[in-house]
């Protein structure tokens, strides 16, 4: 059985700020398995199952995919570019031959110094037939995951919810350069409303139903994250898209804060030559 748990904030240790800002678990037999991406520090613990108190204080995000084992090479490449920090690993000979890149992942080897491509997009299909895309960046990419990589490749504007607390400088909403990415301020789900300051999750949703994409990831929109690896997995599904899109009740335009029932339009920067989009959901 192949198994890996990775977390930049390993239970019982200090944060590894040099490697990827990535968290997840994968477990596969010789035919099928699952890959779960999440945002919870210090999880899962080594000795027994538990859920950290810090993970309960703030909202978190999880995405679990059930996959055929032949996608392990794609998962491994995603993890290699992201420079994940494994703390639980088991790599049998069968899986090492099936997906040779996993040997680099478990031994914390990433790109070569001579490599000049710092991102990868991996196409994956779940056992249920849902096609997803994994977007992963190496720290040498030196740019924002959401605006400079995901939104540009999906060809859509996005509202993005990530951790923006602390001393690190926020990127802020960005208009221009081929896509607009807006920072989410408030979320409402199942009759409960909360601000982004109470949310440690990392996700983005497209602004247009023409590209009904939801992306679950692990990188914050803060400048310090330019120097960290990480990524997100994106799914195009109208039902899921509608749930996430309607949960956004307030976001920052490029110059103003916007409620989703307002009639104002996000103001674009001067270098954005495209028409601005209506903020109505």
UniProtKB/TrEMBL annotation:
Q: Region annotation Disordered: residue ranges?
A: 259-281
Mind telling me which residue stretches traverse the membrane in this protein? none
Q: Which UniProt keywords apply?
A: Hydrolase
The yes or no answer to whether the keyword Hydrolase is present is yes
Locate the compositionally biased regions of type Basic and acidic residues.
259-275
Q: Name one GO biological process term.
A: apoptotic DNA fragmentation
Single GO molecular function: deoxyribonuclease II activity
| Any Pfam family | DNase_II
* InterPro entries, alphabetized: DNase_II
- Family, per the entry? Belongs to the DNase II family.
Cross-referenced PANTHER family, in alphabetical order? Answer: CELL-DEATH-RELATED NUCLEASE 7, DEOXYRIBONUCLEASE II
Q: What protein is this chain from?
A: Uncharacterized protein
Q: What is the lineage of its organism?
A: Eukaryota, Metazoa, Ecdysozoa, Nematoda, Chromadorea
């Amino acid at each position: 059985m192949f198994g890996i748990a990775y977390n930049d904030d390993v239970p019982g240790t200090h944060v590894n700020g040099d490697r990827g800002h990535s968290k997840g678990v994968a477990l596969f037999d010789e035919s099928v398995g699952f890959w779960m991406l999440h945002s919870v520090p210090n999880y899962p613990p080594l000795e027994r199952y538990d859920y950290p108190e810090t993970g309960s204080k703030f909202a978190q995000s999880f995405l679990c995919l059930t996959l055929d084992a032949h996608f392990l090479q794609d998962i491994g490449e995603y993890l290699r570019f992201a420079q994940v920090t494994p703390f639980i690993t088991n790599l049998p000979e069968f899986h090492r031959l099936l997906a040779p890149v996993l040997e680099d992942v478990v031994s914390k080897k990433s790109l070569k110094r001579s490599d000049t491509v710092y991102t990868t997009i991996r196409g994956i299909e779940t056992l249920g037939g849902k096609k997803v895309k994994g977007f992963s960046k190496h720290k040498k990419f030196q740019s924002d995951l959401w605006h400079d990589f995901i939104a540009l490749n999906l060809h859509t504007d996005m509202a993005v919810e990530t951790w923006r607390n602390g001393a690190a400088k926020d990127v802020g909403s960005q208009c221009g350069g081929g896509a607009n990415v807006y920072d989410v301020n408030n979320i409402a789900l199942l009759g409960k409303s909360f601000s982004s300051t109470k949310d440690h999750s990392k996700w983005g949703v497209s602004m247009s139903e023409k590209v009904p994409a939801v992306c679950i990831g692990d990188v914050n929109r803060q400048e310090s994250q330019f120097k960290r690896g990480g990524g997100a997995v994106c799914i195009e599904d109208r039902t899921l898209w509608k749930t996430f899109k309607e949960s956004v009740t307030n976001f920052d335009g490029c110059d103003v804060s916007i409620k989703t029932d307002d009639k104002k339009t996000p103001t674009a920067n001067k270098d954005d030559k495209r028409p601005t989009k209506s903020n109505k959901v």
